[in-house]
Amino acid sequence: MKKILNDPNKFVDESLAGILLAHPDQLRGLQDDPRAVVRADAPVAGKVAIATGGGYGHLPVFLGYVGKGLADGVCVGNVFTSPSADSMLAVAKEINSGSGVLFLYGNYFGDKMNFELAQELAEEEGIQVEAVRVTDDVTSAPFEQKQKRRGVAGIFFAYKIAGACAESGASLEEVKCVAEKTVENIRSMGIGFTPATIPASGNPSFEIDEDEVEIGIGIHGEPGIFRQKAAGAKEYVNELMGKISKDLGLSARDEVAVLVNGLGSSSLEELYIGYREVYRWLDEKQIKIYRPFIGEYGTSLEMGGFSLSILKLDDELKTFLDEPARSPFISI
Length: 332
Hints:
- The chain is α/β, with parallel strands linked by helices.
- It has helices spanning about 10-20, 85-95, 110-125, 155-165, 170-185, 235-250, 270-285, 315-320; strands at about 25-30, 35-40, 50-55, 75-80, 100-105, 130-135, 185-195, 210-215, 225-230, 255-260, 290-295, 305-310, 325, 330.
- A 6-stranded mixed beta sheet has the order 1-2-4-3-5-6, sandwiched between helices.
- Strand 13 (about 325) and strand 14 form a beta hairpin.
- Helix 4 packs antiparallel against helix 5 (about 170-185).
- About 50% of the residues are buried.
- The mean pLDDT is about 95.
């Protein structure tokens, strides 16, 4: 295992410490909880706060989306492991200005359990809390059970739009409604080429032959829907876009935002080849790309592969998507 490490068991804490040292103007850690980070100016008076969190190893998800126009605070666990309810509660207390807190996070069992417990504890302390779970991974459950789907890179759109809504001075109920609307209109799907190696164990997140790819893989190496021999970018995009479009009900003259996301070790050059194929696919269907995003928006350590996320837009979502946002990892 060749990684930039001192001690594999300190991977999360030393990485977090480096981020805080690099960006003190934008982020600060909580003194009593090394796994909790908030905006440097939190709490922001009169503003609904957004808290998120989950397992480490997916930068810029989750910590990279703390900033102006995005989330207000985050807590992270060990690699691919949920943070504790105590950390979530600590973040909620630190960012709450009295306007309430929205818990916005991906739909995973451990995160759901701990965020629900943290919500109960926060409400006992007089903090108004609502919650929205992101469920954009089309391959993790059928359409009829879409509320059971996992949250993957499309969570970026939820942070962006809910964050802009909160920044505008909207109420907690309004921020929750626009977050739910965004989640309803996101679909994502990924392809895995090579696994990540988890620092503490030294083990790969999954095993795959050199000439195979896994279609529909999860960001922790969860099995996809099938494996096939490695092919070309056009074939990969055709496979992903066909399933995403059908599930989202896209049709001619729709407008969408596109996210071509690297999972950790695919080059930016490759991702732009992927975007070229997405553009071709949508153009053939007379679907307009309103705004593209290409890069690493939700990774799985150094996993090889990429994912596509599509957000179907209306005027309200376009307005919030275009609002400025800034964190150490993203600037719009």
